[in-house]
Amino acid sequence: MNTDIPLARRDQIAARLAQGQSVVAATLADEFQVSEDAIRRDLRALAGEGLCRRVYGGALPPLPGATPMAVRMDERRERKAALARAAVAIIEPGEFLFLDSSSTNLALAQCLPSEYALTVATNSVDIAAALLRRQDVHLIMVGGAVDPLVGGCIDATAVLAVGQMNIQRCFLGTCGVLVDTGICTVDAADAAFKRALRAASQRCVAMATNDKLGLLLPHRVTPTREIDHFVVEHDADFAFLKALAKQGTQVLKAGRPE
After folding, report:
1. Which residues of 115-147 are buried (b: 16+ CB within 10 A; e: fewer)?
2. How many whole angstroms separate alpha carbon 199 and alpha carbon 166?
3. Is the pLDDT of residue 72 over 80?
4. pLDDT of 93-139, one tens digit each?
5. What is the dihedral of CA 89, 227, 241, 150, to 10 degrees?
6. CA distances in angstroms from 124 to 42, 129, 146, 147, listed in the order given
7. Which phi and psi (to 5°) does residue 58 adopt?
8. SS (H, E, C) 4-43
9. What is the pLDDT of residue 49?
10. Distance between CA atoms of 192 and 194, rounded to whole angstroms?
């Protein structure tokens, strides 16, 4: 048996997946001269990092937008913080907000004004943890089974809880944005939760980094006209933003990342 360092082997497998190739566990085991169990451990680790989708006998490249919350939290931090700083201007004192599970909404949670006496509900474990010790925020955690990809609860229990709320303003997690069809996502259950959240909210805000604009994903959430404000990056495509505005939503540009 080959005694190659597992991390080096995983890097080679990850590189193939990043190029759009599918991989077969038995073939990889033969190539690297290791057991199929070792390859399956590699694929489990790569799936946990959002670098592949496990299927019977091997793995497929990940879908766009299908990176787990634990990974997304460390991506584009400065750009997400810039979006969050711009979005704070929309919030009014005393509001009942809902922060959908999203790494950009986590950045927003970390810069909420301290003097606003906000009530904040969330289905995100990380957002709840970020707000837990804030004495100025009344925190409501929506429970249920935690989805590791989403980083929060999106099951029937969570949908039922949201349906019983009178939310003044929700910040909807954004996986992909199309001008005509609006927000979309990779997961059907996540899309259903987001639709329930939008229905329970008087106003809706979506923050989107540039990589989300124009990204087509399998499940529709809500049309563009149902989004009151889109907060986008300072260098977002002008033609795309102009088309968004024609749908009736207000487009707010963030400042440059610090």
Report:
1. ebebbbbbbbbbbbebbeeeeebebbbbebebb
2. 10
3. no
4. 999 999 999 999 999 999 999 999 999 999 999 999 999 999 999 99
5. 90
6. 28, 9, 8, 10
7. 175, -140
8. CCHHHHHHHHHHHHHCCCCEEHHHHHHHHCCCHHHHHHHH
9. 72
10. 5
> How far is it, in rounded angstroms, from Cα 229 to Cα 221?
16
Query: Which DSSP string corresponds to the chain?
Result: -----HHHHHHHHHHHHHTT--EEHHHHHHHHTS-HHHHHHHHHHHHHTTS-EEETTEEEPPPTT---HHHHTTSSHHHHHHHHHHHGGG--TT-EEEE-S-HHHHHHHTT--TTS--EEEESBHHHHHHHTT-TTSEEEE--SPEETTTTEE-SHHHHHHHHT--EEEEEE--SEEETTTEEEES-HHHHHHHHHHHHTEEEEEEEE-GGGBT---SEEEE-GGG-SEEEE-TT--HHHHHHHHHTT-EEEE-----
CB 54 within 8 A of CB 47: yes
Please report where in the chains the tokens 């809706």 appear, as a residue: 204
State the Cα–Cα distance between residues 244 and 250, nearest whole angstrom: 8
Residue type, 139: L
Write down the pTM of the prediction: 0.78
For residues 99 and 105, is the Cβ–Cβ distance under 8 A? Answer: yes
Dmax over CA atoms of the chain, in Å, equals: 64
Sign of the C-alpha dihedral computed for residues 25, 27, 28 and 29 taken in this order: positive
Place of tokens 């990589």: 211
Q: Pairing between strand 58-60 and 96-99? A: unpaired
Place of tokens 């694929």: 43
Residue 2 confidence (pLDDT): 45
